[in-house]
Amino acid sequence: MKKFVFGVVLFISMFDLTGCENETLEKQNSNSNVSAGLKEITGKIYQVETDEDGNIVIDKDKITEEVSYYSYEYDGVIIGLLAVKDENGKFHVVINTCQSCGGTPRAYFVQVGNKIQCQNCGNTFLITELDNLETGGCNPIGIEELEEQDDKFIIDHEELGQYKDKFENWKGPTK
User: Fold this and answer.
1) Half-sphere CA count of 80, side-chain side, radius 13 A
2) Which of 49, 63, 79, 166 is most buried (CB neighbours < 10 A)?
3) How far is Cα 147 from Cα 155, in angstroms, rounded to an integer?
4) Main-chain phi, psi angles of 150, to 5 degrees
5) Which domains does the chain have, with CATH numbers?
């Protein structure tokens, strides 16, 4: 009996540590027919441009303090990116899915003031902190090979391809 109780406590503790929940209090208290807790997608949505090598090119002049969403098709799967300029004028570009929630339809981020919020688990992150992402954490995925040039960012398409499985059921902003 003690082993069973310990196992239940351990399971609940592990779930709480990830910070990911499929329902929020907002959802539990909502009477609407719309998925409760989901925030409105604001900002512009772009199809990515690519260079002659097939790498993704994002022009800095399209990135503002309002989040921009970029859709990139990799082997028939749309992979989402998020780009934003913070209040200090610094650019941030990340893969628009939650590392822990990735693979679920609502594992994408929308802007809420000076933060972005996962639409699956509800976790929020300051835009100014998007360069300090925890590997394997419940946060957006950082781009390791993000090349910054004077007027644009270039992202290796092969790096994005490794996240294809996290986007197969994804319902984030694409159009």
Assistant:
1) 28
2) 79
3) 6
4) -50, -50
5) 20-167 (2.102.10)
